[in-house]
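#struct-help
A.M.: can someone run this one for me? Single chain, 149 residues.
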Amino acid sequence: MNMRAKLKKNDLGFTLVELMTVMAIIAILATAIIMSLSSHKKRAEGAKALTELSAVMQNIYLCIADEGTVSSPSNGGVICSIGGAYGSWPSMTGSLTGYTYSSSGFATQPWFYSVTKAADKVSVCCNSTNGRCQKFEDGKKCTATLPLQ
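D.P.: on it. Structure tokens below:
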């Protein structure tokens, strides 16, 4: 058997080192993709909470203008004492699972309401000082006078 035939016979496969290197690269890429997807899921949940709580703001102002009493936030409870025409507080299900409500001062000015997901340090704060809502991802506490952008 000549040298050329012998070399050809030995070059048919990959070495163990080559296979392990490729597997390590695939594992690193898979980890990066999974980490990226989990952060996008967290942002999407916060955006959904922001959208739902921002929609409540208009109903609160309508209730106050009609001289109703705004109820404390509760899971699916009515917003205004006058009746269901002002809608209900968003239910803490689906993408809002794990969030908890807090609020203060609807009978007086200024007031606020918020939801917080302690596990992810995500909160959405809505207050009368700014007349709007904002999402925070750093565990910041919501207050009636907290400046919102």
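A.M.: thanks! The radius of gyration is 27 Å.
D.P.: also worth noting: The chain has one domain: 13-136.
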